[in-house]
Amino acid sequence: MSPVALQPRRRIGWATWATFIIAALFAWSLIAIEFSPGRMIQVPGQVARVLSFFWPADMAYGWDAVLPAIVESIQIAWIGTIIAAILSLPLALFGARTLYPRIARFVKLISATARAFPEILLAIYFVPIVGLGAFAGALAIGISSVGMLTKLGSEVVESIDFGPVEAVQASGGSRLLALRYAVVPQVLPEIVAHWLFRFELNIRASAVLGVVGAGGVGGVLLNTLRYRHFEKAAAVLILTIIVVLIIDMVSGEIRRRIIRS
Amino acid sequence: MPDRPARNWWLWGGSIAFLIAMTWWSAVGIGFSITELACNITGGTRLLQESWPPAFGFLPRLVEPFMETIYIAIIGTVVGGILAVPVAVLAARNLTLGPWVWFADRNFMNVLRTLPDLFWAMLFATAVGFGPVAGALALSVFTIAVVSKLWSESLEAIDMGLPEAVRSVGGSWLQMVQFGAIPQGLQHYVSYVLYAFELNVRASMVLGLVGAGGIGMILETQRANFEYERVTMIILAVLVAVLIIEQISESIRKKLT
Description:
The complex is a heterodimer of chains A (261) and B (257). With 261 residues, chain A is mostly helical. Chain A has two domains: 3-51; 55-260, MetI-like (MetI-like fold). Helix content of chain A is 84%, strand content 0%. In chain A, helix 3 crosses helix 6. Chain B is built from eleven helices and no strands. Chain B has helices spanning 9-30, 34-39, 41-50, 63-91, 99-114, 117-128, 132-156, 161-168, 173-206, 215-224, 228-256. Classes of the chains: A mainly alpha (261), B mainly alpha (257). At the A-B interface, helix 1, helix 2, helix 3, helix 4 and helix 5 of A face helix 1, helix 3, helix 4, helix 5 and helix 6 of B.
């Protein structure tokens, strides 16, 4: 038999081993958290029972209390994105290996550390510093978005065409002029698209920040569920889904147009 | 020399005006103020002093909840990863069973994606009670949302020759998907599931804040008691663990592609 024909057989063996290991880990995890088959059978019934309390949704509460909270979540996400955009633009330039080989490594390390923090953990620190409320949430979102925007931004900068940079420098332009006239115009559309994408993610992030008292709709949901006002919780869910869907659609459409032009 | 292309001033002016208006409105809405930030710097430094050094003696008590966090992430990834397969296949335009199925599945997927992970955790914690089971269920739903969205897009990009070949020799729809489509998308699937696992590890650290098990539950009690030295210890441990798991997962993903 030729070696070429033997190749697939070895790969199948590898995949079988991986499946076996994952299945074993899965079973072990189920046992460890005491998720027995008996418990598993109960789950659909429990979920259905709680869901049945959700109807009819208390939309009057929705308009009066939930919608302002959702608006606050959007504002938190917006300010957070703006903070992150302003901070990440210079960092993205310094983080590009092709432009600043030595500084880039350092910048990349910082952005990797910033990305590892879930924003809600940052909010735990910002709440005692600036007080309960939306301002703490916006700061947490802003700081935690810097990492990802810096990473994506510097990747965009690394992929540019170096012709214009050399052209500016060949005609006597300084490094700063080269950045302004050769680098920024090339990268800005894609970077703005990343900002918008991050804004979409930040809407979801800011929605949960209320759990630690940093403003927005998460706190409302937590309280309605805690006091078992399920009709009110239903209003929170319905309005959140609708608003997020609309923002996703609008923002996605703008991103597509920016990238195309 | 060619003329400089004319700018669309209406579009530029409109966008910038919108940007400024939106920022102004939001800043007022959330009470953004530099003065407040400056005034609270003293409080901030006090907090930082209180939260340093981390309480290393607390570390042994973190082992058990930390393991619980990993269990939650594994269960969520496996269950969600399996359930995402039919959702993704039916949402791929070239494989789906019909326009109505495609439309319904697509919308189902989008709605799943709108709610953040902690919302699912709150809902499941209410339904099945506080504890890791709620967290595992929440992450399952979250994984379906992430994997099905990404994978349905890469399934739409596969070479349709193979599935059509299976169909033309009399294979059923299921056989077409199983032998014609899934083998082509398998590598992407594995890398998306690993990516979802990274997200799940990170999410499962905070699920406990709403009572869905794992290390977040300890974090919540220590935070409520203002034991900030312990909070720092927990966060540092989480950070190190997340970075290690991400490195491993990323190196596997790089080998796959």
